[in-house]
Amino acid sequence: MKIRLIFCLFLLFGTTTLHAQQKEFNISGIVLDTATKEPLMGVYVTTGKEGAQTNKKGFFQLKNIPRGEVTLSTMYYSSYPTCSKQLNLQQDTTLTFSITEELLQMNELVVTGTRTEKRLSESPVLTNVIRESEIQKAAAVSTLESLQDNIPGIVVSPNAMGNNMRIKGLNSRYILFLVDGERMVSEGAGGNINFDQIDVNNIKRIEMINGASSALYGSNAVGAVVNIITKKAIHKFEAGANVIAESNNTWKTKIEVGSRLKKLSTRFSAFRNSSDGFGENGGAYAARYSDYGGNFNLGYTPLDRVDINLVGRYFRHEVFNPAGSMNAAHPLTQSLAVGVNGGYQSEDQRNTMRLSLNYDKFFDYNVLEKKNNETSTNNTANYISSRFVNTFIPTERWEIVGGMEYNHQENYSTKTLGVNATTKTIDDANLFAQAQFEILKNLDLVAGTRYTYNSQFKSAFTPKVSLMYSVGAFKFRGGVGSAFRAPDIKELYYDFDHQGMFWIYGNPDLKAEKGVYSSLSTEYTKGGFNMSVSGYYNSINNKITQYDVINSAGANEKYYKNVSSATLTGVDVNLSYILFREIVLKGNYSYCDAKDDATGLQLSSNVKHSGTVSTTWNGKVAQSPFSLQLSGRINSPILYQKVVTDDSGKESTEITSSKAYSIWKAVLVKPIRLKKHSLELTLKVDNIFNFKESSFINPGRQYLAGVRYSFK
Amino acid sequence: MKKVLLTLSIALIALASCSKNETTVPTVGEVNETYIDASSKTTWHYYNLASNKFIGAGENTKAGNEEWFARTDWDLAINTYHIRTNSGVSSSTNAKGGTYTLAPTVTFASVLELPAEAKFKQDREIEVAGMGGKPTIYLKSEDTVIYFKINEETGNIIMPPIYLATPVYIFRTANGKEHYKVQFTQYQNENKKSGHVKFNSASIE
Asked: What is the CATH number of the domain that holds A44?
């Protein structure tokens, strides 16, 4: 595959004079923009110790650099990747750096489809990527906002139980959320995950795969896989801080520090977010909250082919009661994730092995306000995952990924798993293998399978096969994959008396839900234009549904069984286009018919037509860049359709829907660089047209001002 | 000069209010705070407003109810978040109890007398939705111990519920002669257990 965008060109013109006696030399040169050939002002060129910033003509000069090996790196704005070059300095030297902005990168590396690094353009599975620079230019203040900016059809109905997110009518139980390839523990009702535990400023990129497209993942990868890749240190020393102020007295602050040395790299960040919420005196309501969190990673590379990493993440989320509330308690949750992983590559580079162990624990407490804020535990959930993966490349045309995984899930609850405090567990053991074979130069086949043995429902076998064919600027991908969703501990073991108002009972005999996902896609990439069209058919069987039984006392008891099935049929269109180098247009459109097969109704909260659009102007004033973005999320009405049973047992259909959505935001980002220091000022107006709707818990138009400082 | 006038007029107003106070301010009885563990769904706790006492409890059965509905010595009864007044379907003696609900903005302290427009609601058969189950018929007042915060844009109760102090209720006693202002101020105890009810009451004219 020819790499179409070249980011870093390096030209070296040696002068002819030999300076055998000299110990120090000068390095000078210019820095140009690859795309426009214009000189770039303000680029900091550094050896690590010495540095100089380019002038209006893009010229820099470093004087008296000691003879010998020198690594020169460029530092510009965050959307321009660092360009580095090593040289053996034996004379005065003139260089030209040619760098370009990371606008549309088809040669960037993605990992989700194959658990090995693949160029995005060569990934056998159609992968959508949200990049750090895009998150920054959209001034997304949360991980959820960056997902909403880029994935059409996300519906969230936040309350104190969580975001209650659904994508195309499927809740979080049908989407596998990973952080650096490790599953995030779902916390509560509907498999909710609080994405605020992932600091959006700590995200390098987000990779998304639709449907059951990879054999390498287990339960939940029925609707999609979303893999959040976090930042690692890239400079010898780096540090930064952000402050964001938003409407409703919302503050988001963060500090980070990192270092990459020859064998050791580490990065630590901590954040605090708080908000007064809104609607205490009317309108839509969201509670006041206070969050703290941190991320940590430590990498050690004792040898070129060996690496060991330690990662950690902590998050604390406290939601307060409004003034005048009689509630005796307010909720507090904490989550903690720690992991260790290591890799080894054989000398011939044909075998790469990785071992990992991860532990993720979620705590849900009540803070008893009348007892000096003493905490009492409601629930805890933990997930331990251990995995061995081996990537074997026997010949250039083969790549085989195989491995095994063991997971242990443990939930503790003081009241939902029985009258008394109860702990329940589920274990699963997995074997998986996926092979990629280059049948012809332009034709790749990927076939894989996963076998799961679950302590509850026993066995699941999920094979997948896909083909990728490249011709010219086109790529065609097609495949059929199967996936499953294991019933969760609540669905299996619920034994919950909800204050005598209703009862929920789990069903330990539940089977896994099965999904079969077929898709066909075309991708076209030429210059700054990329477009993909993908059609899919996702059939989910054995779907677990809650049903009601009226007991002899007339009270409501809720049970679970594998009764229903659903069929999702749809088309996704993704488009990005760089116009005259300075304007970037991006758009997604998604059509989805998400049908409950038994009733013929749409799955609750499905949105048939949805899209996201953005126009970003990466302009310059007096050679100093800025970005101005206008972006929107547009949905057809959210559909709420269900069958209701009246007193006499007669069934009828209840159909309601929201208004159509159209929510827009405008963001101005102005970066300023002074040598190793970079400052980014952000102004944002969110929900510009003050869209309000009863299903959309939002305070209306909001304003944001932010400052981001970094030192490298 | 202006200052002197101002001081004088303030003094006059103060005097005027004083003299008014002496003649027309209604007598509000002592405010009593009462607590009851009414968490059992099957038990009603019966209260006499004049003596500020729970005088007994009865099962929520036909026999239990009939026994208490025949009595006239109680004015208020509580079962979890449900309340009864000695009136309508909760009385077999045609007792004259009942409630009148003031606007949520009216504070407990500001209620000094029975508003002229007060109309009292009698207990009746009320269907309580069983959260998806078969609705249960309760013989009770339409007022309750709990008052939910609602999303004012949708009119829906915010979930999970946020309990607010109830509006001030005016209770008429079983004999129909006395009136008490009552406001429920607690539904959960310090351990977040529901049905642990606190209320303030005071007699008004």
From this structure: 2.60.40.10
